[in-house]
Amino acid sequence: MPLMSPKLARKVWRRGGNWAAFVIAWVSAAAVIGGLESSQQNVDMTKEDMKEMEVKGMAEGLTNIMDFLDEDDEVNRSHLARLIQLLGRKDFPRIWALGEDDFEEHIEVLKLKIKLIHEEFNRVHNQLDDDDISGKETVKELLNILQDGKTVDILDKANKMKHTMAEEAAESYSEQWDLGDSLHFVSTVFTTIGYGARYPVTAGGKFATVLMVMTLLPFFLHCLTTSASNINTLLDRLLGISDNYDDLEDPTQEKMTSNLELRRKVTIKGSLILFCVIIVHLLISAIYHFITTGWGFGDVLYFEFINYSTIGFGDLVPEDEMTVAGAILKNILVKIPASLILLTLFIRLLPVIS
User: Fold this and answer.
1) What are phi and psi of 164, to 5 degrees?
2) C-alpha to C-alpha distance for 12 and 148, rounded to whole angstroms
3) Cβ count near 221 (within 10 Å)
4) Cβ within 8 Å of residue 135, ≥6 positions away
5) Coil/strand/helix, residue 137
6) How far apart are CA 136 and CA 175, in angstroms?
7) What pLDDT was estimated at residue 163?
8) Residue 270: which of 231, 309, 243, 242 has the closest Cα?
9) Which whole number is the average pLDDT over 134-160?
10) Cα–Cα distances in angstroms (integers) from residue 113 to residues 13, 85, 107, 126, 147, in the given order
């Protein structure tokens, strides 16, 4: 004997059972993607991708230089073409990675840069008017600092620290796909926000993401649609239209005109209520992010509207969304309600705008 009748099961499903199943699917998908992306394969592929991007940027820069060479400068153009072709070889990023020195920040390069800067500001010092005492003193102090050998040592140490921090950040990105990161990533998939702060690198992770788009996203839309329908039905009842359901089906011309007017009034009133809810919800979310992120008021408003519209540029991402509590609470209290309210308003206005 079944635990409940099909009719009761459908009622439970539409009244929140689908959301419970969706949360289970969300957590399960996060566990899967987290396990796939925290593998050693991801660590190695992330480092390889970084080197490939570096080499690709070098090749693009050399290609741009080619445009500035004269057409009849065959010697330099041929030499540059050979170099670009070499950078395009499949194994070049691997070979390039074997050279551990960052030539741009090598201490000898730093010394040359400081020498050139010193010469340039020595020229500036000579060009300043004699009565510009403050300006000359400022430049002179700069020249003294540049001439001091400690400046090179300090910049060299700073570059080494920056290099170490960059390596740790790259390793952290590829290794720390914990549950909070995974929950956040999956939520950016089903809400279609797609910040880009996290993305799959392994073949398994990419395949799992495709499956999520094909399954979890439609499931999320189903949950939103059923809940939006329930909210609109509740609004109709609160606004008194449910008391007139029998009259709304009356086919007489007089009743049809009266019913049409009643439906229009209820639609407008319900839309105004939903619009007010959106404003309040946006305001509460903005106040929270203004307090917790340290962003300016303009950035907070910008983020709220971009987040509400599910565009998700990724230029501003609150750090608390990467934690387990943050990922769950921010979705339950901010992102999912935002999608639900907007869809409810759209469904309510659809007969009017269609």
Assistant:
1) -65, -45
2) 77
3) 14
4) 128
5) helix
6) 52
7) 64
8) 231
9) 76
10) 68, 30, 10, 20, 12
Gyration radius from the chain CA atoms: 31
Distance CA 279, CA 55 (A): 48
CA distances from 70 to 60, 65, 78 (A): 18, 11, 12
Close Cβ partners of 348 (under 8 Å, ≥ 6 residues apart): 232, 235, 267, 270, 271, 274
**Tokens representing 278?**
């959106």
Concatenated DSSP letters of 36-57? HHTSHHHHHHHHHHHHHHHHHH
pLDDT in tens, 304-313: 888 888 887 7
Q: Distance between CA atoms of 221 and 229, rounded to whole angstroms?
A: 12
Sign of the torsion angle spanned by Cα atoms 248, 250, 254, 260 = positive
The pTM of this model reads: 0.65
Tally of CB atoms within 10 A around 42: 20
Judge contact between 345 and 278, C-beta under 8 A: yes
Q: pLDDT tens-digit profile of 201-255? A: 777 888 999 999 999 999 999 999 999 999 998 988 888 775 544 444 444 444 4
User: What letters, b where the CB count within 10 A reaches 16 and e where it falls short, cover 271-309?
Assistant: beebeeebeebbeebbebbbeebeeeeeebeebbebbbe
Question: Is 216 in contact with 25 (CB distance < 8 Å)?
Answer: yes
pLDDT confidence bin for 19, thresholds 50/70/90: very high
Instruction: Tell me if 187 sits within 8 A of 322, measured CB to CB.
Output: no
DSSP 189-218: HHTS---SSS---SHHHHHHHHHHHHHHHH
CA gap 263, 256 in Å, rounded: 10
Which H or E run includes 126?
helix 107-127
Q: Which two tokens stand for residue 347?
A: 């469904």
Dihedral sign from CA coordinates of 334, 340, 345, 346 = positive
Q: How far apart are CA 301 and CA 182, in angstroms?
A: 26
pLDDT of residue 246: 46
For residues 297 and 290, the answer to whether their CB atoms sit within 8 Å is yes
pLDDT tier at 275 (50, 70, 90 boundaries)?
very high
